[in-house]
Fold each of these.
Amino acid sequence: MYLSLNCLKDFIKIPNKIGATEIADLLTMHTVEVESWRLQADNLKQVVVAKVLTVKPHPNADRLRLAKVDIKSGTLDIVCGADNLIVGQKVAVALVGAKLPNGLEIKETVIRGETSFGMICAEDELGLGSDHEGILVLSDDAKIGQELSAYLALDDTIFEIDNKSLSNRGDLWGHYGLARELSVLLKLPLKSAITNFNEDLLINKIQDKIEVKLEEKNICSRYLAVKIDNLKIVESPVWLKNRLFSLGLKPVNAIVDITNYVMFELGQPLHVFDAQNIKKISIRLSNKDESIETLDGKERLLPEKTIVISSNNEAIAIAGVMGGLRSGVNENTKSVILEAATFDPVLVRKTSQALNLRTEASIRFEKSLDPNLPIIAWQRSWQLIKEIIPEAELSTDLVDIFPEPPIAKEISFDFSWLKDRMGYDLSRKEVSNILERLGFKVGIEKNIFTVVVPSWRAVKDVSSKEDILEEVLRIIGYNKIRSNAPKVAVQFNLIDKERILEQEISNILSFSANMNEVYNYSFVGESSLSKLNLNGAHYLRLLNPLNNNHTFLRQNLLVGLISNARLNQANYNEFSLYELGRVFLPVAGVYYKNYMKSESRLPYQGKRIGLLVANSQSIEAFNQLKGIIKLLFSTLSPKYLLEFTVPEDSLSWGENKMTVKIIWQGMDIGYLAIVNREVANNFGLKIQVAVAEINFQEVFTLCSQISTRLYEPISRFPPAIRDICFVVNEKVLYNEFWKELINFSPLLTKVELFDVYQGENLPADSKSWAFHLSYQDQEKTLTSTEIEKIQNDLVNYLTDKFEAKLRAL
């Protein structure tokens, strides 16, 4: 967007000592980014006013002529091809060395044998319009030799504003909005948008009527229309043309030029219709397959939900984008209907994009304009019309359709809240002063600010106390805010003991037990559960499953591990896998005892340790996995007792005779079982698979009770090893027998089973266990006598407890 310094000075008296660079810096640092600025006269350097003295045909070219022109300092011979060149005209001549706005550099040139010492310019070559039909003819009052920029009073400074930085500020798409910003930054008074307005101008002297109907109120928040008669379509005065030139617009006629100028001045697009045959206006959405010929002469098929202005059910304008050719103002227009409105920004943007038609009007409507602005814009345009065409008269009262006037938006905040976040020391009065100069109304009671947002900022810009904070800070200047590091107490990261235990378990299983870790989906399918003889009724069902094989959240790690075994059996005869993952138990159905003690009604997400060993022999797979479990828990805590007991209930998928519960320090933490042949066949397993699943939460609870491990030196005194074999009744449980052994004496440091026998030379209901017993003292070497005494006491104790008998090895 282009910004004219002269237009800004209409609303704010900027001292001459404040240059363009300072203005550009102020706007960039506080409001919007200024990409560049230039003096308007720079485009017309070495272009002067000249008088045509003679014109004669070119001797070597039928379509060219030779002209001699007077530039006051002398005469120049120039070759020219314009048909409208005649003697006595005042014209614009670009001297040798001039560089025109279109990039053309003027040089002394020989054209068909004749030397040309400059160029007589057309309008478009000077950047003053698009006409190239002939040369630009100046009025008779132009002084020969005068700089063209001085003659045209092109003394403006033009700033180029980055459009992206205006995205959320619809109030800045006009000079008045930016003048308001500068008035705050420079602490200068801001003039009214309309100065010297005579209320008599609003008197309707001709009684006519125009009907306006808004068919859908949501498409237009406000619509103003008034009819103006007794018009003469005249050329705009020089000052208006110059203002439009400075903003990059081509003058058309006074009526059209005024609406364009007011749009750039105030930011409110306007439109004028030729009033002939228009008695009733409708604002509606487009009909199916409806089209319109726009002002650029193109027939356009209107997209769905395009806002149109229609008369007699015929579209006469694409609202907010472009008018129709049939209702456009031309040289025969005697009366017009002036329109000022605020259309729905979303629909305007969609229409503009669909038609690939972006106009100055559509750009502004997209930004959500202030619904109070149309009334100011129409008065300003009417004021200019009366100045340029005094005989013009209002022929109708102003039609003002305003379905839902906006309610003033109030924002309250505590001043201490604002001050804590500013990083800059400001008083209540200074904050209030900044906001009031920006147009906010401020009330203060004790320490509470109540701020009423002005209508031009309330549409979609300022809506929270954080926005108010931003307003204050940008006016102060972000560069003035000191960069202080926040004072925050340094804290060590919290130690995640669960995560540490997970890592320790993974290290034991991966490195010590040489197992492979796997990661499986947390989902299972109904068919997989059926293969395990499990009922999916109590499983949590997914609303949007990936596929039929992933319809439930898993309640164990079994499905994934067995599927892994099936995939690997083709390549390996023996392997071992483990997974550390979550399971998901619903509130109803399958319960978890500790979870049900809480009041949470969300599904329980527990962690499990899943282990699998595959082997050609079931007993080998079972014993190997049992050994891995012993390794795991003896590493976690050698002093905690690990037991394997016969479960009371069988597993639907496990081999009954090869299923045990895992007990650690008296707590039931999981199970170990061989997958039975039925389930193995269901999954296509051709090898024997042992599976264990351990409750990680239970393990974590027990590990949390383990005191910090302290270094214990190895005894300097050697252990004494004794082998012993007991015969017991077959009903005696090994775990109970072993527990009594290991706890009998502190000097008995290690008990290791090395043989189990049941058969010949033993009673039918008996079995024998052979053990290596290690005796050791930290203070001395044990004597044979001391060891024999302990061992005799041990034998007597076990004989009384289990009726155990010694058996020769």
Amino acid sequence: MNDFEFWERWGLELDDVAFANALLVLGVLATHPFLKSQSIQIGIDDYKKSRNVNISAVPKNETIPGKDDLQDLLLTALKLSQGKGNLLPWRFPKPNQRVKIHNETVLLSNLNPNQVANAWKGIGDGTATAPCVQVLSYPVTEAVSPWFRMLFEAAPPVRAAHIVFDSAHVRPHLKWPLRIGYLSGNSGEAIVKSVSMKWPSDKLTRSVKIDRDNANCDVMVFIGSGRQLLRELLDVPGRQKSNLVIIRGRIEDDATSVKQRLAALSSESSASGYVFLHPDIPDEVLSDALNRLIENLSHNQPMDVALSEAFTQRQKTDPTIFLSRHLATFQIDRMMENIRTRLLALPKSARPEIKPAMLSQMGVPLNGGNGDLTDPVHVAKKLAECKSAIRYDHEDSGALSMAEMNSAIEDAERTVTEEKQHQRFLLEQVLIKKQGKYIEERRAFQRGIPTLLRVRVGPPDEKWTAIDSGFPEEKLPKDREEWRLSVVLTEPNHLKEPLIRSVKLPKSGPSTECEFRVQPGAYALFEGRITVLHRGRVLQTGVLKGRVVPDERDIFTGDKITFTDILSVRSHVGDLEGRRQFDLAFVVNHSADNRPRLQAIAANHAWIADLSTCKSVAADINSALTKVARSVRDYSGGLESDNSRKLLVELAQLGRYLYGYIVEDQLEAPTNRSEIIKKEYVQIVTTRVEALVPFEFIYDFETPHDDAVLCPKWRESLTKGACTEDCDTKSGKIVCPLGFWGVSKVIERHALTTEFAAEGKEVFLQSEPTLGRDVLSLWGTAIVAASVNVKPPMLGPVLSACAERLGSPPQEAKDWKQWAELVRGFKPHVLIALPHTDGNGFKATLELGGMSIKSIEIEKGYVRAEGDDTYPLVVLLGCDTTGTALEYGSPVADFRRKGAAVVIGTIATVFGEHATKVAEMLVNGLAQDSAKPERLGEVLRSMKRKALLEGLLMALCVVAFGDADWKLAGKES
């Protein structure tokens, strides 16, 4: 017999309400087993009067000495709760627990059931000061719902009840309007959307889909069990962040696993609270209860009260509520300070549209003149002065005004153009252990000496060494207290494996510090890469470099440990909230001895690799694909022809060669295999263009034998983007195009230019999507030009595709001179060049219409007209325009630097008919319906799959440089 069954038998003579009363009192007594009513007698009489308590109506408990002692103790506990936010602590009573009532110690189970029940009944029937029950402990081996629901059946009723949930995320971060989220494919979507159409939720909430594009919400609605939710969250890329999760479904079939399940859910969702509802309640009931929750919150009710009323009194949903202490007491008036903070953080040029009605409807007096309501500082001051006057008596008073103000501030943050202010930097300290203490060392590293590397982001400080370039924070978030950033240290000669730490970056001032402990070995140079990431995307990379000496006496005069910036990719840190989570980040650079190095970072794992041999693999891939370019007819039979099969096998074998060098060593640990192979979104940053690695050709499946056949289900797999369950990916007897990373993954590439590398400062930022500017329109007149090697009939389909898909006949440039004139005259969104490239390094040239220019001579006028704010998409399809087979240089990087939003090139030689076919394929694939613009990364991957289905093998060599988050719109909005 479990404890709840015991109490049910103990109170068998009681009706449901009386039993609920008794259980409530028993839990209070269990929380205060030795509470003395006399010790807090002052004020109890006042409490009795406020609740109209009639003590004489309460029967005496003949088994306990002292008049009305049981009720006195109960009133004492209630009085104590008033001083603690009206939260009444409650513990599930144990039958063998002893309590002291007056001077007598007795077992709870020996108390008279009727007298215990009447003790609660006799304290009055008012609800104005009714307590909120806070369950501190309960039996972990018993079902939760049966006893928890009894807390709401007491009479007089409690105002709220919840089980304390010890969330690892101490303070919840909610926004207003409240973001109500749902997981893609879950039927909670219909519930959320129905709520968004009801008053007041239509004004006070926003519906958001939880996926890779958006990981955050305030309240998530899920239909299913706790186990199903955990499975769904594990499949969501990155870590989903919710504050409260409302689940229509059972907590858990196995009562003993409730706490473990909640802990696992919290780890994956960052949630501070969970509400489980009966699985059979209708959609409309749930929708109404959710809407009532929003209404309650708008009246500034604490979260526990708002939830309890909405789900037990307004609608009977049989809830079980778990809340952290901070979330239980959360009220929306706390957000007013957040609004003031955001207003004060706006730049002077910002003018949020704060209207007088917003202030008046929340109760802020406007007599004596409104002042300048477009001045955020003035509005912030007025809100501070009138804080006590703000009303929450109606949904369209303070709550609605706060929602409207937040939207106005968000608009101001989105549209304002801020000046770049690099006020904070990536900082480091090197300390060595000497005589048992760590002391600062700025000259050199010492062999075998424990060394502490400290890293933080902050303003310049003479005690810290900073890199030259400021930390990329052009647009820090205004409504976040802090951001968590990952920091990775790699050093191939002194560290066995990379080290991962994290820091918290606040809105201003220095971040927290992270520490790396190393012990330099015999190698004469320490060259550590410190990379900072957010949500899987690289923000900044610096190199910490210094000599390693055998002893302090070997340090030369002038020796210095340097810390230099080699990469700054992301400037719009504030926009990362709305950016997609990336699973893997690769940074390709060179060591001091000029060896190409790869730094790879996943969520919980990092590694380094020497890429010296990858250059020859890239050349072999180029050579293999060039066979297609030089002999079009031999490969005209599609993927199922024997020549195409042989080529796919050869490319897959080369891809496995790359796979071995880049990731295979990481698969030795069983826990890493699924982590790496299943990653779908990959960011690649190349700090030297000659170090370009054809990641797109990495092959995930087992190495195919020379006689391997095309997978029988390759068409089905390409169509749906995933292999069928019975696909053979391990025997080596088959080859499948879906095994290549460029076909199965979304890859975002960034590359630096030789010009910047020559200056010794490999830093630059190119056009990228930001809040309010995330759609890349392809609509309008395109500019098209080709080498003399491309015959006019071959170009016809490209011109036709542009006219049909982009809404206007394209302009054909005869040469580079006319190209620049057409760019100036038409301000195109799409530029398509099919050039012939020659030479390498600074002598590399591109020829169009018989006219050649050097890659380094590409000017802004070849990409954008003077004063034009268009960021065009550039297509360069020709003889190896990404530089894979060249020693140095890449026109792709030059076009990006001059203002192209995206540059699409090829990773191998493409001639004549194939170049025009790929160009036509790109135009048709990239021109999207503006009603639902799709992301560049997914569009390019989908386009490759379609092209392969049509037998166009050269689609494999297409790569894009630029932000994968650009949304493509092929029609005018």
Amino acid sequence: MMSRCVLSLLAVVAVSAQSLPPGITKGAAVEGITEYKLNNGLQVLLFPDASKPTVTVNMTYLVGSRHESYGETGMAHLLEHMVFKPTSKRGDIKKELNDHGAQYNGSTAWDRTNYFEQMQASDENLKWALEMEADRMVNSNIAKSDLDSEMTVVRNEFEMGENSPNRVLLFQTLATAYLWHNYGKVPIGSQSDIEYVPIDRLKAFYQKWYQPDNAVIVVAGKFDEAKTLGWIADTFGKIPKPTRVISKTYTIEPTQQGERSVTLRRVGDTQSVLAMYHVPAGSHPDYEAIQVLTAVLGETPSGRLYKALVENKLATSASGEDLPLREPGVVFFSVNLRKEQSLDAAKESLLKTLDAISKEPPSKEEVDRAKARLLKQIDLSLNNAENIGVELSEWASMGDWRLLFLQRDKLKAVTQADVARVAKAYLKPSNRTIGQFIPEATPDRAEIPAAPDAATLLKDFKGSAVVASGESFDPSPANIEARTQRFTLPNGMKVVLVPKKTRGGSVNASIALHFGELESLRGLSVTGSATGAQLMRGTTQKTRQQIQDELDKLKARVNVGGGATGATASVDTVRDSFAGALKIAAEVLRQPSFPEREFETWKQQSIANMERGRNEPQVLASVVVNKHLQSYPPDDIRAAPDPNDQIERVKAVTLDDVKKFHAKFFGASHAEMAVVGDFDPAEVKKLVNELFGNWKSTAPYTRVTKIYAPVPPINKMIEAPDKANAFFFAGMNLKLKEEDPDYPAMDFVAYLLGGGLKGRLPNRIREKEGLSYAVQSMLNAPDKDTGSTLLALAICAPANVLKVEAAFKDEMDKILKDGFTADEVDKFKASWQQEQQIFRTQDAQLARHIAQNEALGRTMAYDAKQEAVVMALTAAQVNETIRKYVKTADFSIAKAGDFKKAGITQ
């Protein structure tokens, strides 16, 4: 098998050996990514990676909220929605995306708007995507009728954000920190501008910014470079270069001359305080040191803020975040605390810790730890071709896509002195926006330097070696099964190995432990969750920080958790680090130390999170429906959790309870492990046996069953004061399990209704009536028991909740009466099949799935059989199945929101 470097070199030679399509010139090439330029100004980045059978097209326009004028706030984001509407040449773009099995989305930020679609790799899919993107670049209708329906959807998205006090506080602090620059205006925009934007202004904004000379297209994945360049020339190359000239933005935020403050007062159960500082642009030489400074202060559990506030029980959490932007941006630090904790004490400790960093510079250990964690994230991200397009768009919006690689190299060189210098330069009281004003006789102001010229920074930049590629792997169930190796350890643990060559030598593992019985676990739901939450917080050999440090050195992600009936562990790393990472996972599972301080911290965090959520509309509505559908006693582990009850149970659980739970139930006699990726099977088999082979379960294990029980339907409205967004939740019990012959058809019914945010319900409620930003349905079916539930949900404005309910019921009645059409079924089957294919290319998901299959005695042949059943379904069979199990009147419904304010009653 040829290496990634060799394959990339051959590809470059192949493209270079022939003449480029007319109108295209070749530019810089860094680490396997090659830049091209069209005569009309379009920038093209090609990143071939044949290790997965997918291709991603990422389209970025260099326009965001920074470019919006008075009365235009949110316009860039509104256009993000509008270009999914018809063009002069095509109708339903979302339907076309779904027909091609695409995973797609769009996002808007301060400096750019981004769209992507990831599909199964094929000439047809890629050519279609390029044609579609070229079409909507200049031919979108931007019609008044489309704006009328989509405006309410975008407004609902705005209202969704308004439900979160922490989010609103961040937005208001940002607006207070900036007097003139548009970074003080968040991309979602103001509600009035969203509601009243004139169609002619929106169309003019589109015609100005959505042009080839203001765009970057990234193609990443498995594709032919020469063909792709030809298709790009044939589609985008025909778009003329616009005659208009885009003026650079020129507003410069003046130096802040004193501390600013903002106070938010609204309904809520937790408190928070935030401190924000102006810092240079993401391309500035200081920025890497600022990132390290942010991590030194804001990481958990090593950060100074965590140690000062959380460990001293002044707050439940502490964090820091920096925003790398094209022009000077911000860094902010926040803490959350319960009502019973003192906001003044937390604020005092927060500011004291931030101010002290200038006088007590970070140690070498703090800096090295932060750098290791940041570099790990970059390296792991670069191993995933599917994510690189989005990453490149962020850095392209800052001046040049190669800044991504320059940032990584500069981060390696950051020193203690650099971090101390930027702390002293920017973390000044006069440069801070927080909750109060303090006059100062001699202001000490931070001067924010301008963004440097990216071309100058990158003049001699070459980049590092290209990451090694993997093999071209067919993710069909048959091929996965052909690669599969199975064995059982002496203690009964089942192990499944799927070796294959992957990009960067990546490898993923999934471990699942099962334990307990219905009666032995009675009343232990919270205890089991508490035990699982403590596992990563320290072992008998390592502290929580040492675990994190070791994983950062290994460039590995290990997540271990659990609940009342089992525990799970996942490993995401590279071949050379897999043994070390798996040893840590085994140590965490088998030898937790349960530190008392960590346990108390977890209790405070858990209570705060539940207190924060118990007044949220989605929690209120889902609790009512789930408790009604699953009517088990409170001490039954199958009972739907109630936030108030959970809070009392968390308060009551003790560290001794947790230790006893682990000692009694944990073991690997009833466990599965799956490993997928680049590894030596013989070495892994030996390692797994050493780590888990002698770990036996002492308590009996019997799978907890979930049996169908009919319940009468309910319909309730729940008040959620001061919430701008409402939540609609509907559910019904079905007598169905995965092993039933009807299951594949019923699972496909849920997909047709609204699986993956597409289908009949989203089309009716979101697309046609514009009542909701998010509409979805899902089928939760046990593997071997009959207690399934069919669920549907939607978010909306409180004033629209009855319209959402009426639309839901009416559409369900139409489906049950008229059925799904044959064309509809065929189109969704093709889309569903491509989604299954893409799912099997995600190694972490595949490892979890294989482990689950092993627990059920299934091979990948089961997946192939289920897929074949779905693909053979006719519209008549689908309609027969939904009519057999579903009646609109059987749905139990709950709606939660501020209905009193909206003047809505049932």
